Amino acid sequence: MDSKLLTYSRYAMLPGLGIAFAAINMATRGSDLSTSFPYFRTFILFFVLITLERIWSYRHAKSQRHMIWRDLTSTAVQTFVAAGIMGAIVLPILHYLPETFLGRRFLFGLSDQLGPLWVQVGAVFLLSSFWQYWVHRFEHTNDFLWKLHGYHHSVTHIQISNVLVSNPLDWALRNALGGLVMGIVGFNPYAIVLGGAIALSYGDLSHCGADVKGGWLNYIYNGPEVHRWHHSTEFPDDPKFRYGCNFGVSVTFWDILFGTFYLPKDEKGNVLAPKALGHPEGYPDEPNYLKILFATRCFPSLERFFDSKAKNNDDPVTIAAE
Length: 322
Ligand SMILES: [Zn+2]
Ligand SMILES: [Zn+2]
Prior knowledge:
Elements: H1 2-28, H2 32-36, H3 40-55, H4 68-100, H5 102-107, H6 117-141, H7 143-153, H8 168-175, H9 177-185, H10 189-205, H11 224-230, H12 253-258, H13 289-293, H14 300-321
Helix pairs in contact: 1-10, 4-9, 6-7, 6-8, 6-10
The structure holds zinc ion (2 copies).
């Protein structure tokens, strides 16, 4: 009975979390808390997922304790700095462009002509996930972008603390630029923020490090079982997976539609896990957030500068040890 309950709980967790977070979002929209401290949802998400990761621990988990400062810095920069910059630049553009630029009036129409708000939220969710899929896929095929995006692939275990471990530009290309395009098309700014937020929060669940199961939801949402294959050190042995598989950030149906979905199962129907997670070309996980921020893998001279600085810092220790 106990083990059955445990199995059911593994299946119930993801949909439960999805519904709970959607309810929290709706209940706190426009509340005092969300205006004075807009980041509280991120805190709740991290707190809940870290707790779940402790209780339903994943059997192949690799300790990430030595990456704790990198994870914290990356999360803080993405949440407070990058999101703040995005808000300061993108939101005024979303309001300004449609009124004045040739975009809306020239191409489409006023945002209320694009349908009621809930229809626009749904459309934005679909379009954002479509954008995320194609930009992410392009990031795997383009040399420069693959080096930039590769930092996210160097992690050796996926858990909520490393969902935001990315170069900010890599993250923004995938997750934010689409919103700007939709603003030019003429979508209501609230629909863009809301639809985009739904796409992003489902994407966050893909880095849930707990041993949760997606069941049939794996064919709609990008759960951890699906996303682990995206982080596998070895790509599936098929030319169509030459650049990887499961590129969807929040959903999987674009992968299914465009032939990049991969989720192998054993004869009992249990989802198989990849042998190891990490960069397919063997780049080790990067503990120095500054290197990720300045994208030193894309610029060899910067990489040498960082390495020579690190060497200088190490020297006294080496001497002392000798
Ligand atoms: Zn990727
Ligand atoms: Zn990931």
